[in-house]
Write the structure tokens for this entry.
Amino acid sequence: MKIRTWLSLSSIALLLSLSSLAKAEWGVNMTEGVTEISQSIYDLHMLIFWICVAIGVVVFGVMFYVMFKHRKSKGAVAAQFDESVTLEWLWTVIPTIILIAMAVPATKTLVEMYDASDAQVDIKITGYQWKWQYDYLGEDVSFFSNLSTSRDAVYNKEEKGENYLLEVDKEVVIPTGQKVRFLITSNDVIHAWWVPEFAVKKDAIPGYVNESWVNVPVGQEGIYRGQCAELCGVDHGFMPIVVRAVSQADYATWLDEQRAEKEAAALAALGDYSFDELMTTGAEVYAGRCAACHGQNGEGMGSMFPPMVGSDIVLNDVEKHIDILINGVAGSAMQSFAEQLTDVEIAAVITYERNAWGNDTGDIVTPRDIIDARQ
Amino acid sequence: MTRQFIGLGLWKFLQSVISVLAGVQSQNKRQQDFAGDNLLRIISTCLGGAVVLILVVLVMVNMALPDPS
Ligand SMILES: [Cu+2]
């Protein structure tokens, strides 16, 4: 009697906790995502989960029942047979049938996931330590997407925002209702491009191009966030992904804007800039693009990342300084910024480094110097 | 030797093949299969197992693949 009360109480508790699980607000379960593929992956996951639950309940149920029913205190005596072909067949055939029943729908979904053919938009995604580059193939649009969370927020000197470490300076924009193919590769080490709500997670491997695709349904316009999913160095957690899905009309407008911006930047490089203007822009560029490796105040970091304060190149060799920014240092984490920054930004950050933190060289490097150096 | 094996009949042979694949067999049958120095019988049972396995995989993959259209 007592045991029966206890059993029914605990099963009520179990049911209650299961039904609260079903409300999903708990956030432990995998996301359903927004695409057809992500939905079918979620459905598969739930199907297999419940199959496992059922198997667990039956197996442990029988086990505990048998242990209790044939307990020693009731005088049970162990059976001594050592072969039951029928039983052996049952526990071979039933799991095989269950496995096949799960494998068939799972393979169907897998095949669909891998079919990146007939895409309307092609985006090449390149992983860098520690940022992503997006190339809209055939559209003449290309840019880098950097973490925009400030270092002060990282070091608890500033309140952490809602999208802490999940925000970027430039989002990758895709149209809804179209099949968008991603060609994923890397410039240095292995990264992985992961957006949970698209159910897309693909390794970015240097010298190799992986394919994946997404088709965000019309009506699901919005912001989708993701992260690098392959440990890739100290700032692995600082290279998030932000995708903005927009209507096809907005997408076309956005593409035009990007081209116009590029032209405007080329024009801007021909303008004249005062020392103060360059220093202000330079400080921003430095904080956003360089501080992660060279320190917030140019102090460098460990033995890997040289300080800017007192550097021979920064103090005495303008040409080398410009060359390093445009071409990078081969074989090191110091990459080329030629494609990542505009002429104005490169000129500004060089001017800034040569005059900040007591590097009082008085040098001014202008955007025109950068244009010349690029040739 | 061969006559002895063929004498077993197709049904017995299939039973042995299925036992090879599933790893389930009664003591009696196991002793039959391994009785004497009947090497050919053991080898052909294993080969039969391999063929059935390949067929099963073929059928399963074709079930899972979408129709080419
Ligand atoms: Cu990475």
